[in-house]
């Protein structure tokens, strides 16, 4: 089997480049400290720019139909004053608790915890992959990996691990399975058939950024859903293409001795099969109930005018609808296989599901304060107006602007791996800026997600990489074989490039065809 180590000389320049990125990235502070620092910077800038008399004048559209736009002048507010600090102290708890992404992510993680912690997702993924013919395993593994972000971090790791185990059992190179599963799971953060916690989290941040500027546009968790469904097919194709045309040839994949005992270890048990059947039946009943409450005229989920889009109880209530869906199928599955023995087990499982979001709850504290001060200072408005004017002067609206933003996201992603942390920084600036260029918050968000998803797997700071190295080391056939950061990144780079190109071309096509990005969501304002 060909090892990445053997390519060391030809890749020395690339490896040196990666090491430099790693050194620079390691010097960046923790996201918590990063937002504390950004808050201090905003406070100081507000003082200095206020004293310098910085302001901006622009035409603002009226919220009342028929009224002409009004000329508004906005000045930088000095936050280091009684007027700036008194509300901050008085509303400290309210600012944190009322932070839009906080409630969304907590609710979604509790619901998703029911399908993750009971083992439903694990069993479904194993059944899907093991049930596929050997020649289709790569494609099925890709589809499963793409949709594995429903389980967040656990899905990323599980797909790589099960990919290695199943490829080995089928007589194929386990490294190929690990690489395929890990790559697909990363691409899945902008491609999925289902709505996950990531969608709720990012849309919450988008809502916060849009609301601060009075932007009237949909910001619900489904704003990128149509694009994500289409992207699932694109990423599946690209994953299989890169795996079969590059990874297989690079690593070698010629052994065809099927290990039946290993396959048996991962086989779904009869009890798990029964649990999946019952969970599937519950899902169908639940979807049927939603349709009954949505389709008929005057039904519960329609708005007062009898419509569904752009706003209705259905679109506004998508988070609780998804919460009850995950909770229902998770409880039925857990009860069937015996994980849930009494009602006392349900809150414990929900608690375990919420534990995965604890790091975000901590980072959200300084992040909420940063967003609060950023809006209050009027720097958001000034940056958005000046940025929009600058972009107009460059005459690079539309596609060139979108591509520039995607590339900016890919570069930042090499140094700040947290998707929510980056969006918390970028959304307050680019959502208003893009809206002034006539582009919707939904388009801004999906452009950001493309850059973020495409380069997650090649970031040397990703905390997934050490885990993937550990999984690879389980299948070492030679003690001299070395698996390191350079190994993973070099194997992931072709996927990263393919995803970046594929996602971008898909968005360009979406733009020219002016297709809705999600229910009731337009590309343009």
TrEMBL record:
The keyword Transmembrane belongs to this UniProt entry's keyword annotation: yes
Keywords of the record: Membrane, Transmembrane, Transmembrane helix
GO biological process: p-aminobenzoyl-glutamate transmembrane transport
InterPro entries to which the protein is assigned, alphabetical: AbgT
Bilayer-spanning residue ranges: 28-49, 96-116, 128-148, 178-202, 222-242, 276-294, 314-333, 354-374, 394-416, 423-443, 455-473, 485-513
GO molecular function, one term: secondary active p-aminobenzoyl-glutamate transmembrane transporter activity
Source organism superkingdom: Bacteria
PANTHER family (alphabetical): P-AMINOBENZOYL GLUTAMATE TRANSPORTER, P-AMINOBENZOYL-GLUTAMATE TRANSPORT PROTEIN
Protein name stated in the entry: Transporter
Species: Anaeromicrobium sediminis
């Amino acid at each position: 089997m060909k090892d990445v180590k053997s390519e060391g000389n030809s890749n020395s320049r690339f490896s040196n480049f990666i090491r430099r990125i790693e050194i620079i990235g390691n010097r960046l502070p923790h996201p918590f400290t990063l937002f504390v620092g950004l808050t201090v910077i905003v406070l100081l800038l507000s003082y200095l720019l206020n004293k310098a008399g910085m302001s901006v004048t622009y035409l603002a559209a009226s919220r009342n139909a028929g009224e002409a736009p009004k000329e508004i002048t906005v000045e930088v507010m000095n936050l280091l004053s009684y007027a700036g600090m008194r509300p901050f102290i008085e509303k400290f708890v309210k600012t944190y608790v009322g932070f839009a992404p906080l409630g969304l992510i907590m609710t979604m993680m509790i619901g998703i915890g029911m399908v993750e912690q009971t083992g439903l997702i694990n069993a479904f993924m194993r059944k899907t992959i093991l049930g596929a013919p050997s020649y289709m395993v790569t494609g099925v593994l890709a589809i499963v990996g793409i949709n594995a972000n429903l389980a967040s971090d656990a899905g990323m790791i599980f797909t790589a691990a099960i990919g290695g185990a199943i490829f080995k059992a089928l007589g194929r190179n386990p490294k190929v399975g690990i690489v395929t599963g890990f790559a697909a799971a990363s691409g899945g953060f902008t491609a999925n058939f289902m709505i996950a916690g990531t969608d709720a989290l990012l849309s919450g941040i988008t809502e916060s950024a849009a609301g601060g500027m009075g932007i009237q546009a949909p910001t619900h968790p489904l704003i990128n859903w149509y694009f994500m469904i289409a992207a699932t097919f694109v990423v599946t194709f690209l994953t299989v293409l890169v795996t079969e045309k590059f990874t297989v040839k690079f690593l070698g994949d010629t052994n065809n001795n099927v290990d039946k005992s290993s396959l048996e270890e991962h086989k779904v048990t009869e009890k798990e099969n029964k649990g999946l059947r019952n969970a599937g039946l519950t899902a169908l009943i639940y979807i049927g109930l939603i349709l009954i409450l949505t389709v008929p005229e005057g039904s519960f989920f329609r708005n007062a005018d009898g419509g569904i889009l752009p706003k209705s109880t259905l679109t506004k209530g998508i988070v609780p609808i998804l919460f009850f869906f995950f909770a229902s199928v998770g409880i039925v599955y857990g009860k069937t296989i015996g994980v849930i023995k009494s009602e006392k087990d349900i809150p414990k499982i929900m608690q375990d599901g919420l534990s995965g979001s604890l790091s975000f709850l901590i980072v959200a504290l300084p992040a909420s304060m940063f967003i609060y001060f950023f809006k209050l200072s009027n720097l958001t408005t000034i940056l958005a107006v000046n940025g929009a004017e600058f972009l107009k002067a460059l005459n690079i609206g539309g596609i060139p602007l979108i591509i520039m933003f995607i590339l900016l996201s890919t570069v930042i992603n090499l140094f700040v791996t947290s998707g929510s942390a980056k969006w918390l920084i970028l959304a307050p600036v680019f959502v208003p800026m893009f809206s002034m260029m006539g582009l919707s918050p939904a388009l801004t968000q999906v452009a950001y997600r493309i850059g973020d998803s495409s380069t997650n797997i090649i970031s040397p700071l990703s905390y997934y990489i050490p885990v993937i190295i550990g999984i690879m080391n389980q299948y070492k056939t030679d003690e001299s074989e070395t698996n390191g950061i350079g190994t993973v990144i070099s194997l992931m780079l072709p996927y990263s490039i393919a995803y970046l190109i594929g996602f971008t071309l898909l968005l360009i096509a979406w733009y020219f065809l002016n297709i809705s990005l999600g229910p009731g969501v337009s590309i343009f304002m």
